[in-house]
Amino acid sequence: MTSSTTSSPAAALHPRAARRCHNVLNPLHSTHYFSPDVTRELGLLGITHRSAVNFAVRAAAMGPVGAGVVTATFYNYKHELVAAHVPEVWRTAAPREILGARLRAVDATLRRLLGEEAVTSSEMREAAGLALRATEACSRTARPLYAAHADLPVPEEPHLAYWHAATLLREHRGDGHLTVLLDAGLDGLEALVTHTATGKGIAPKWVFSTRGWNQQEWDAAEERLRGRGLLDSEGELTEDGVALRRDVEAETDRLDRAPYEHLGAAGVERLTELGTAFIGAASRAGAFPADLVGKR
């Protein structure tokens, strides 16, 4: 699959361009986590619990792994929640079956959110070509979720190829991000608390309902972060907390720069433009809960 957009190797990539591009590709991947189509398709396989569905569709690319692997690679989920569903979920349906169900659900989700005209458009073909070109420079080394998904075949239909490429780019950045969080001394829950404190992370109610943590554990994490001078008494980031989150994102950018440098400045700009239109349409169609992001 190719794109009509070409990029000049001489054009410098803006320092924040890769992150801006990621910020429109990542939510496109994530639409299926909130989709009734995934609930329906996994339900047909006998997987009905919301957490089991979530763990199954994202972890299936790694094969029938145990709870420890899922906790390690997902990072911010409470292990006890993971262990309640993994590896039991693989006894309900094999990873291969789950991957097929996920792709059918993604197909239905994107067609419903974007409409047939967008799904079959030349812009979608162009976006898929650009995103796949960027993935050519991704690295498997120390990136388990990316590596597992990189071994999956690229779907033939452009909207599914675009979603697949967005998934690869999301997991590539995400795997690198976990390395940075470890280096910053943030455990899974502390990472969630500090991200939510920026106003860009998921609201605590969603952390409790999807990640397995509770209010007492959230409060304890806040107290640990206050002890490090990263949060104030109101749960807001201090100057040191703001600097830490800024440094975390900047280092994540550095570890994730290869795909976007490979695509080039013009290609990244065009992919961001196309991706913005697609995720904007999906969001307006109700892809995400209205209260998903927020400090409270």
From TrEMBL:
InterPro entries: HTH_67. It comes from the Bacteria. It holds the Pfam family HTH_67. This is SalK. It comes from Streptomyces alboniger.
